[in-house]
Every structure is written in structure tokens, then in C-alpha cells.
Write a structure and sequence with these properties.
The complex is a heterodimer of chains A (464) and B (286). By secondary structure, chain A is mostly helical. Chain A contains 18 helices and two strands. Chain A is globular. Chain B has a four-stranded antiparallel sheet with strand order 7-6-5-8, with no helix packed on it. In chain B, strands 1-2 form a two-stranded antiparallel ribbon. Chain B has a two-stranded antiparallel ribbon with strand order 3-4. In chain B, helix 3 crosses helix 9 and helix 7 packs antiparallel against helix 9. The termini of chain B are far apart. The chains are: A mainly alpha (464), B alpha+beta (286).
């Protein structure tokens, strides 16, 4: 009585008769989710990211069993894990290597989206949720990096929290409120621990579920950027789609072999990665009275950190001129008197606040604004990209060159951020920052220019 | 304070760069083969206990962890532990941090992870400490009477002075400085200044010569030991000591690499099976 009719036998049948949503979810997201059959290597990184998330959860839970969030004990408890806890070194390196691999995998995953226009209509929400995941991941990493309570943990957190100081009027109070003290201290460590192990992981898990739900509602894009749902058989299944399970589960399992080989090679043979994944300075306990000669964030933040450092007062005139140029372009693009007025006033106000000596805002503040913009500009991609085709495959050759320049600028910014600045390096960083922002902000113009190749109706696929 | 912090982060930290550059000395390479040689590690442990463990502690290092480099409890107790510590204790020192600060100006750091702490993107911590410990010279102008080519005005004296014997030192520093024009008129100009300083074995400056517009910016040094054989023996002893410090910084490193070989071997098989499974399933995708 009251049981749902079921097609399954045994225990599964017993469950399905009482809770059919379980197998419905399995069918919706696995066995009857049709993914394009022409995925290439770039499509591995989504499932890799999910696997790293699980690695971080499991190793993090084990670390939290031995870690002490107390400014007198934290540093020593981490070394206690390394030396006295059975297999503690393995757990700790799993977590520290996992953090860096998370960003490697996520950056490649995002680059795939850029390459094949995966953020374009109707997948804007998939992309936006993904961008929120990226921000949450940065927060997670920032909070977590304070926990070993070494010199870099301490001074890195100090420097980043002090960025809030540059906000007019409320800045100082805000940064004190964030720290819970006038300097980074025990109160800061405890709240960061709480954020790192409870708040952000919960948010991340929920966001990842949202990301996958949003994706499965619209279906995956593919390297050709064509919609497989446009060509279906009599029963409504896409002709170029194959069930995710078992085809892509075994496919990703195979890919995971390569992923884990790279991950374990670092974990077991170079967990420090030459001072890039684990910095030497962080093996010195935090000392509020001794500032290290060179403070740098971890490698995955350095591109944005470089942009912050490159925003000097001499550079502001160029930023202002760039804004003006962009404002003029936008003015010519928009229609209607009111829109044009808004663009003109906004551009003029920003230009004045950037360059006119008497009224301009502190270049430090603009540095923070540009850094914030550099991490959030990804949100706008679905609307910045105006190309008539999604995939880079069918775009003009010089579009690929622009993407290449963007990637090079990003990598150079990252390299410069690891190293101490010199006048020459700052100049290079400013050039790269211009390329970085130019790539995105001029995209509405360049992405529709050039001769596009014809896009096929169906996906191109070579039998494996 | 906040402005100072911010400047460090956001702007060109010129002071930091300068101090880093003026110390930039070419580090000697630590002979890495000492790091895997059990005899060398044991000799390093002996040197560590005799020379370092009076002022520096290694509070994360338990005595009985020395089992890993081939010493048993009896040997550890008889030859290495002074006083009434047990083999299950950690290597702590009797010196109170407060006294240490009074005597040396700052408390000697704990050496448990010192090699890893000195690792940077540019050089290895082992090379740094190997060069530092062999880089002392007599200098009467400092508090301890010792100075160091890697770490100028270091608070630590030369612990190996006795076996090493007296040494003379020659330091050559070339850097940009503001130099007033020869006729004394006009503003000073940035020029390359080469400074050669010679110290005798008692730490007196016997020569201090400057020349203009010579060579490339940098720092070089040379030692002339009275007894080259004794000095070479100390070099070998320091190499063993650095090997020990390196091992102590991560005692599980050797085991980690051994596990790694098995892990990679397993993953090669795993990937092979994955490839086969993939091929079997994807046979019917056309």
C-alpha cells in the first residue's frame, strides 16, 4: 500500500519503492544524462576538480583531528602532524598539494570554457555559478593559508586584510572588525579556522551541486560549440549524445589515472615544489615583530597581486586614458540619449577620480579596485563575448593569437608576483595588466571582427 | 604601522630589495651525497649535539627518532644525551630564552625545521646553511668579534673556530653609490664603487681600498686559513652537519620517496586498466 511501482529488484527495489527520487536523480544526472560524444582532453578538468574537492574534504577532516587553532600551538601542531601522527605527513601533503592542484585544475577548466564559448547562451548560469565557486575557492584558500601560522601565513594575511584599509571612511574599522584585533592574532586564527572548515566548505559543496544542476538542465557544450539537442531521434535523445554513465565515467576514470600520477609525483617527490607550493618562510613560526624582506601570496593569487602592485601613481594616468578610450567606444556603441549620457558622465567621473591631482582617489585604492575587477571580470564573459560562433575552432586565426597573448600575460603576471619587484619588472607587469584587461574589456568589439568559418550542424567525431 | 605594512605589500619595497642585493653572495653547493650516507648523518648528529645543541634546541625532534639513521637507544644514551634526558624526550636546551636574548641580542632559533625554513625559490636551504657555517671571519667591530659573509653582523659566533684555526679574509663588494664629483662642485652622481676589505686573523682591518667604475655589482670573498688541512676537515664536518639538519627537517622524506615509487607504479597499472576499460566501453560509440 502506498509503494511506488519499481523496475528494480532486491534492496534497490525496496528503496526505490519508498524513495524513487534516488534512482530518478541517478538517471537524470548519470545514466540518462546525454553528453556530447566529442569531448576532448579539456573536458577532463571538471571531474578532476570534483575529485580534488573530495581529496581536500577527506584530508582536511583528518588534519582537523590533530590541528590546534591556537596562536601558541598552531605551528607546532602542524609539525606534530608531520612527525608524530601516523601517516600525518601523507595527510598534510595530500592537503597542501591538493590546494595547488585545485587551482591548476580549475584554471584549466575555466580556460576550456573560454576556448569553446561554454559560457554563451543558454549556459550563462552555469558559468556564473562557476565564477562564484572560483571566488569561494579563493576565500577558502586564503583562510586556510593562515592556519599553519608560519611567517608567510601571518604576513600574507596581514597584508591582504590591510587592503581593506584603503576603502574610504570605513576602511580602518572594517579591517579591525575582520581581524577581531588590531593585528592578526589568535582571534583572527580562530575565525579563519571556523570559516575554513565550516562555512566555506558548506558553501562550496552547495555551489558545486548548483553548478552541476545548472549544467544538466541545459546540457554540456562541446569543442564544436554546436547544440546536440538540435538533432534528436524519435524518442528525443540527442543523436550526438551518449549516456554519461557508463561512457564518461570510464572515460574520466582513465583520465584520473593521469591526474593522480601527476598529483602523486608532486606529493611524494616534490611536495615543496621548489618553494612554490610550500614556501620556506612558512617553516618559521609567525613573528609579529619581524617582517620578512619579501612577502608574496601563494602562486595562484600572484597574477592578481601583480596587478595590485603594478597600480602605481605614475600608472594611473594610463589607466585613466584607457578608461576614457573604453568610454568613447561604449558611447559610440550604445543607442539612445539617456544611455549615452550615463556612459559619458560615468566615464568622465572615473577619469577625474583617477587622474586629476586635487580630487583623485588614492592609487592604492585603485590598485585594490583593479585587483578585485581582475578576479570578478569573468562574470561578464557571457555578455562581453559577441562572436557569432561559440567555439574557437571556427573563429579567425588572430582570435587564437589574442587568447595566446592573454594567457602569456596571465602567466607573466603570476611569475612577477612571486618575485620581488624592480622598476623593470613593474613596467612589464603594467604592460601585462593592460593586456589582461584589454582582452576582456575590448572583447565586445574584437570578438565580432574577422572572417568566421562555417560551423557544422553536427559534432565532428572520430571513432576511438 | 599600517602604512608601513601596506607599502611593503603594494609598492616597490626598495629597502627590502637593497638589503637582499647587498647580501647576495654566491652560495657553495652542499655535497648532496652526504644526505643519504648513514655514516655521514651519524657524524652530523654528533656534531649537532656537541656544537649546536648548547644554544639551539630542536624541540620537535625526539632522541629515539635517531633510530632512523641507524643508532639504537644504547648508543644514543651513551654518546649523545648529556644530562638526565630520556630517549623519548625531545632535543631541548637548558638555556632560558630570556637569558639567550640578553646574551646574544636575540634567542637562537629552534633548528628542527631550519633547512626547510631557509629554502627559497632561488636557492636550497642546505646550500645556505653550508655556506653560512663556513663563512665566518674575525671582525673586531662586532659584539662577538665575528662576522659572516652570508649574514652580515650575525649574532652567532663561529662555533668551529678551534678546529678551523685562524683565517684571514678578503671581501670585495661592488655596488652603486652616490659619489660627489672630483672637483667637489655639483650634485653627487650614482657610480659603481668597488670596496676591498682585508681582515687579518685577529679581526683587524689591514686594507680598505675603494676604486671607481670597476666590474659588475656583486659581492665576493676569499679566506686564507693558517692551516688549510684543518680548515678542509671542518668543511667536511659542516657538510655532515648540514646533512643531519636536512634529515631532521623532514625525517620521513626517505620513506616518502619509497612510498612514492610504489604509488606511481600502482598508478601506471591503474591507468593501463583504465585505458583498456575505456576502449572496451567506447567500442560501440560511432
Amino acid at each position: 500500500m502506498g509503494l511506488h511501482p519499481t523496475q528494480y529488484k532486491g534492496l534497490l527495489g525496496w528503496i526505490d519503492a519508498r524513495m524513487p527520487s534516488l534512482m530518478t536523480a541517478f538517471r537524470t544526472h548519470m545514466s540518462e544524462y546525454y553528453a556530447p560524444k566529442n569531448f576532448n582532453v579539456w573536458y577532463f578538468f571538471g571531474s578532476f576538480a570534483l575529485v580534488v574537492l573530495v581529496i581536500q574534504f577527506v584530508s582536511g577532516i583528518l588534519l582537523a583531528m590533530h590541528y590546534k587553532p591556537d596562536s601558541n600551538l598552531a605551528f607546532w601542531s602542524v609539525e606534530f602532524i608531520m612527525r608524530e601522527v601516523n601517516g600525518g605527513w601523507f595527510i598534510r601533503y595530500m592537503h597542501s598539494t591538493g590546494a595547488s592542484f585545485f587551482f591548476i585544475v580549475v584554471y584549466l577548466h575555466m580556460f576550456r570554457g573560454l576556448l569553446y564559448g561554454s559560457y554563451r547562451k543558454p549556459r550563462e548560469l552555469v558559468w556564473i555559478v562557476g565564477c562564484v565557486i572560483f571566488l569561494a575557492l579563493m576565500a577558502e584558500s586564503f583562510f586556510g593559508y593562515l592556519l599553519p601560522w608560519g611567517q608567510m601565513s601571518f604576513w600574507g594575511a596581514q597584508v591582504i586584510i590591510n587592503l581593506f584599509d584603503s576603502i574610504p571612511l570605513i576602511g580602518r574599522e572594517l579591517s579591525t572588525w575582520i581581524r577581531g584585533d588590531f593585528v592578526v592574532g589568535d582571534a583572527t586564527l580562530n575565525r579563519f579556522f571556523s570559516f575554513h572548515v565550516v562555512l566555506v566548505p558548506l558553501a562550496l559543496a552547495a555551489l558545486v551541486v548548483g553548478h552541476i544542476f545548472a549544467l544538466h538542465d541545459v546540457g554540456s557544450n562541446n569543442p564544436d560549440g554546436v547544440e546536440i539537442k538540435d538533432h534528436t531521434d524519435a524518442s528525443g535523445r540527442p543523436l550526438d549524445g551518449i549516456p554519461f554513465h557508463p561512457y564518461y565515467t570510464v572515460h574520466d576514470l582513465y583520465g584520473l589515472g593521469f591526474f593522480f600520477t601527476a598529483y602523486c609525483a608532486v606529493l611524494f617527490f616534490a611536495p615543496d615544489m621548489g618553494g612554490v607550493f610550500l614556501e620556506g618562510n612558512n617553516f618559521i613560526p609567525a613573528d609579529p615583530f619581524q617582517t620578512p624582506t619579501h612577502i608574496a601570496p601563494l602562486w595562484y593569487f600572484t597574477p592578481y597581486y601583480s596587478i595590485l602592485r603594478a597600480t602605481t601613481s605614475e600608472f594611473m594616468i594610463w589607466v585613466g586614458l584607457g578608461t576614457l578610450f573604453l568610454g568613447v567606444l561604449t558611447y559610440l556603441r550604445v543607442h539612445g540619449g539617456r544611455s549615452r549620457l550615463v556612459v559619458a558622465v560615468f566615464t568622465f567621473a572615473v577619469f577625474v577620480l583617477m587622474t586629476v591631482p586635487q580630487v583623485r582617489l588614492d592609487p592604492k585604492l585603485w590598485g585594490v579596485v583593479l585587483m578585485a575587477l581582475s578576479t570578478t571580470i569573468f562574470f561578464a564573459l557571457p555578455w562581453l563575448d559577441q562572436s557569432p560562433v561559440k567555439s574557437m575552432r571556427y573563429r579567425p586565426g588572430w582570435h587564437k593569437i589574442l587568447v595566446g597573448i592573454f594567457v602569456a600575460a596571465f602567466l607573466v603576471l603570476g611569475y612577477l608576483g612571486i618575485n620581488p619587484p624592480t622598476p623593470g619588472r613593474t613596467l612589464v607587469a603594467q604592460l601585462c595588466a593592460a593586456c589582461y584587461f584589454g582582452f576582456f574589456l575590448l572583447m565586445p568589439w574584437w570578438s565580432r571582427m574577422g572572417t568566421f568559418k562555417p560551423v557544422p550542424a553536427r559534432v565532428t567525431f572520430a571513432v576511438h | 604601522m599600517k602604512t608601513r605594512l601596506f607599502r611593503l605589500a603594494a609598492a616597490v619595497s626598495a629597502a627590502a630589495c637593497l638589503s637582499a642585493n647587498s647580501q647576495e653572495v654566491k652560495l657553495d653547493r652542499w655535497p648532496t651525497e652526504r644526505g643519504t650516507n648513514l655514516e655521514a648523518l651519524q657524524s652530523g648528529a654528533r656534531t649537532f649535539v656537541n656544537y649546536c645543541l648548547n644554544c639551539h634546541g630542536a624541540s620537535l625532534m625526539r632522541w629515539n627518532r635517531l633510530h632512523d639513521i641507524g643508532l639504537d637507544d644504547k648508543q644514543i644514551k651513551a654518546n649523545l644525551i648529556f644530562g638526565n634526558q630520556r630517549v623519548t624526550d625531545t632535543m631541548t636546551v637548558a638555556m632560558h630564552p630570556h637569558d639567550a636574548k640578553e646574551w646574544f641580542g636575540k634567542a637562537p632559533p629552534d633548528l628542527s625545521v631550519i633547512v626547510r625554513a631557509r629554502n627559497t625559490v632561488e636557492y636550497a636551504g642546505t646550500d645556505y646553511i653550508y655556506t653560512l657555517l663556513r663563512g665566518f671571519y674575525r671582525d673586531r667591530s662586532t659584539l662577538t668579534g665575528w662576522n659572516n659573509v652570508v649574514y652580515p653582523n650575525i649574532a652567532m659566533p663561529n662555533i668551529f673556530w678551534e678546529p678551523q684555526g685562524p683565517r684571514e679574509a678578503t671581501l670585495t663588494r661592488i655596488e652603486y653609490q652616490d659619489v660627489p664629483p672630483p672637483d667637489g662642485k655639483g650634485a653627487p652622481r650614482q657610480r659603481l664603487v668597488q670596496t676591498i676589505s682585508q681582515f687579518d686573523a685577529a679581526g683587524n682591518v689591514v686594507l680598505n681600498r675603494t676604486e671607481l667604475d670597476q666590474g659588475e655589482p656583486g659581492f665576493a670573498y676569499g679566506f686564507r686559513p693558517a692551516d688549510p688541512k684543518a680548515a678542509a676537515a671542518v668543511d667536511a664536518q659542516v657538510a655532515d652537519l648540514v646533512g643531519y639538519l636536512n634529515w631532521m627537517s623532514e625525517p620521513t622524506a626517505t620513506f616518502r620517496r619509497q612510498v612514492g615509487v610504489w604509488a606511481i607504479a600502482f598508478l601506471v597499472v591503474f591507468t593501463g586498466v583504465g585505458h583498456w576499460l575505456h576502449a572496451v566501453y567506447w567500442r560501440d560509440v560511432r
